[in-house]
Amino acid sequence: MIPVPLEDLASLGGLFLAAFGAATVLPFQSELVFVALQLAGDISIVTIIIVASIGNTLGAVVNYWLGRGIERFRHRRWFPASEAQLARAQGWYARYGVWTLLLSWAPLGDAFTVIAGIMRTPLWLFGLLVVLAKTGRYIALAWATGWVMS
Predict the structure, then answer these.
(1) Are 60 and 130 in contact (CB under 8 A)?
(2) How far apart are CA 110 and CA 130, in angstroms?
(3) How far from the centroid of its chain's Cα atoms is residue 128's Cα?
(4) What is the average per-residue pLDDT within 21-36?
(5) At CA 47, angle to CA 43 and CA 52, rounded to 5?
(6) CB burial of residue 29 (10 Å; 0-12, 13-18, 19+)
(7) What CA–CA distance (Å, rounded) separates 101 from 98?
(8) Per-residue pLDDT averaged across 70-84, rounded?
(9) Residue 145: which domain range?
(10) Residue 1 belongs to some domain of the structure
(11) Helix axes 123-149, 109-118, angle to 10 degrees
(12) I need a labelling partner for 7 at 20 to 30 A (CA). Which of 18, 42, 76, 146 fits?
């Protein structure tokens, strides 16, 4: 195992937290941290992509579990969606299925991950599609940053 300097661990930890938060319903953005680390050039881009992808995927798993448990509260006043909105989202997910999880990287992708939990998507399938989507996003971001900066 290659030793990682302490300041790099702190930077990677910050990236992990930003990526994790960005995948949840919290208003975080991980792109700035990702690009800053890439441009600094102190950490390999493969490591940056792996850490960001793991953090972002685990944040999506939190949404999945929220979806698995939140539906029991659907008749409460504070529930974030009306019956009609929830029925529409479930119908949309039922029509397009798990493939919507390939859009989990997009700005509204957090909703897809919550709905996947509500719809009881098998966790292994959820994980596979979300890892592909999240990792693909960070690879594309790394490529775009490299292209713009070259």
Answers:
(1) yes
(2) 11
(3) 12
(4) 90
(5) 110
(6) exposed
(7) 6
(8) 74
(9) 6-149
(10) no
(11) 170
(12) 146
Please report whether residue 56 resides in a domain: yes
Query: Which tokens is 133 given?
Result: 């989507």
- For residues 138 and 52, the answer to whether their CB atoms sit within 8 Å is yes
Q: Render pLDDT for 118-143 as a digit per residue (tens, 0 to 9).
A: 889 999 999 999 999 999 999 999 99
Q: What is the distance, to the nearest Å, from the Cα of residue 45 to the centroid of all Cα atoms in its chain?
A: 19
| Rounded Cα–Cα distance for residues 150 and 123 (Å) | 40
3-state secondary structure the chain: CCCCCHHHHHHHHHHHHHHHHHHCCCCCCCHHHHHHHHHHCCCCHHHHHHHHHHHHHHHHHHHHHHHHHHHHHCCCCCCCCCHHHHHHHHHHHHHHHHHHHHHCCCCCHHHHHHHHHHCCCCHHHHHHHHHHHHHHHHHHHHHHHHHHHC
